[in-house]
Design goal:
The termini are close together. Helix 1 runs antiparallel to helix 2, helix 5 packs antiparallel against helix 6 and helix 7 packs antiparallel against helix 8. The radius of gyration is 24 Å and the shape is globular. The chain has eight helices and 14 strands. By secondary structure, it is an alpha+beta fold. The longest helix is centred in the N-terminal third of the chain and has 24 residues. It has two domains: 149 residues, Tetratricopeptide repeat domain (Serine Threonine Protein Phosphatase 5, Tetratricopeptide repeat, Alpha Horseshoe); 269 residues, Porin.
Length: 429
């Protein structure tokens, strides 16, 4: 893996520099375009890829339309981890500029490898072998040697594993959103959370993938609200150009204070469309779950849950914004957990410094408990921020704060909540 990263870094650094030199010898279409390009090159060398992307895109808007600036935009997407956008940008580069076709194919192979689409990555690297540039041929050959052979396509590809631990204080303890305990049970306490995740393709073709996670939350001053749970989901992936469809079943089970709480089984359909020129992704997610109580005292949770989510994700300037709307319908045995909910959320994430990322969020949720003898309506506002510091490629530290204000037509269920936590996580590739 280290040698692969070295090869990737070598090509991208060399070719960005070469592209910048090529651009500097071409007649400038406008002084502004040249200045934007130069600023983007400086930001890239400083590893401020969000800033570099913004400057290169400004150069395009100012009239620069050569292969160098489009190539650098694609490379910035790759360095930022936006592999779907990088894929589309490299495909477009190869189509628009035939002289860049082999370089684009090599980099397309890198993006596809990151997305665990090994068969397509192999085809892209093989096309890159036709280049006249010995560097491209050498690097493509090295990447082909690192990929599993076609005869081993049934063997599992590399998975991603993550462990996250955090501690903090919760001014009004409540169950995690995935749970279904009726409102009104809360208290003040510190907390400790542990989350483990593993996910990846079941075969190197990447058509089927598996995601599994487990969590544990403990409250020293409110042990009756200690929570734990596990989740397992399988997804089949279908792709056509800039469309992606994921569909498959999921299972989950949770416990409350050591007692079996609820379990659910269902199916999810997730459709996304990438607009590479606009640096945007549109999505729609449909989920249906059948919910059962694990132990008789929690029989009120039994029933069905349906969710519809519409989302828009777009890169803006030096950051990324995510807007989503979710409608949730609960048809449970207990009226106190049978709410219809509309949720609107906005998140903006940006690079504070090369190793620091900031995020602010706001969420509004409207819950309607129409089946109660006295119907109740709740309006919940939630706002917060998060700062993340990366250490190398696998460690990161996070500081997070959330403020919640729940306004209910029944004052008993109105509350405020302050939650602050610090944590560390490690990713294993």
């Amino acid at each position: 893996m280290k040698s692969r990263r070295l090869a990737v870094g070598l090509l991208l650094c060399v070719t960005v520099e070469a592209a910048a030199q090529t651009a500097s010898t071409e007649p400038a279409t406008a002084v502004a375009a040249s200045e934007y390009f130069a600023a983007g090159s400086r930001a890239f060398e400083a590893q401020d890829y969000l800033r570099a992307l913004s400057e290169f895109e400004a150069a395009i808007r100012a009239g620069s339309d050569g292969p160098a600036v489009h190539y650098n935009v694609a490379v910035c997407h790759y360095r930022l981890g936006d592999y779907a956008l990088a894929e589309e940008a490299f495909r477009s580069l190869g189509r628009r500029f035939p002289e860049m076709r082999h370089l684009a194919d090599y980099n397309l192979g890198l993006a596809l490898t990151r997305r665990n689409r090994t068969a397509e990555a192999r085809a892209a690297f093989e096309r890159a072998l036709g280049a006249d540039d010995d560097r491209i041929v050498s690097l493509a050959t090295a990447m082909l040697a690192r990929l599993p052979s076609p005869a081993r396509d049934s063997a599992p590809a590399a998975w991603t594993r993550l462990v996250d631990f955090r501690v903090g204080h919760d001014g009004n303890v409540a169950l995690l959103d995935a749970s279904s305990l009726p409102a009104g049970r809360s208290t003040d306490s510190g907390f400790a959370e542990l989350l483990a995740y593993a996910g990846g393709p079941l075969t190197t073709s990447g058509r089927w993938r598996l995601d599994a996670s487990a969590y544990l939350v403990e409250y020293p001053d409110a042990s009756e609200l200690d929570q734990s749970g596990v989740y397992l989901g399988a997804r089949y992936e279908w792709r056509a150009r800039n469309w992606r469809l994921l569909a498959g079943p999921q299972l989950g089970r949770s416990a409350l204070d050591g007692d079996g709480f609820e379990q659910h089984a269902g199916v999810t359909l997730d459709l996304r469309h990438t607009f590479a020129p606009a640096r945007a992704v549109l999505g729609i997610v449909l989920t249906h779950d059948e919910v059962d109580a694990v132990e008789p005292q929690f029989g009120f949770v039994e029933g069905e849950r349906d969710q519809l989510t519409l989302l828009l994700e777009r890169a803006l300037g030096s950051g990324r914004v995510v807007l989503d709307y979710r409608f949730e319908r609960n048809d449970r045995a207990g009226a106190g957990v049978s709410s219809d909910r509309d949720r609107y959320s906005l998140r903006y994430r940006w690079a504070l410094r090369p190793d620091w990322t900031g995020e602010v969020m706001y969420e509004y949720r409207l819950s309607d408990y129409a089946r109660l003898d006295v119907p109740r309506e709740e309006r919940r506002h939630q706002a917060g921020f998060q700062a993340t510091r990366r250490f190398g490629s696998s460690w990161q530290m996070t500081i997070q704060y959330r403020y919640t204000n729940n306004e209910s037509s029944d004052p008993v269920f109105s509350y405020e909540r302050h939650r602050i936590g610090v944590g560390a996580s490690k990713t294993f590739f």
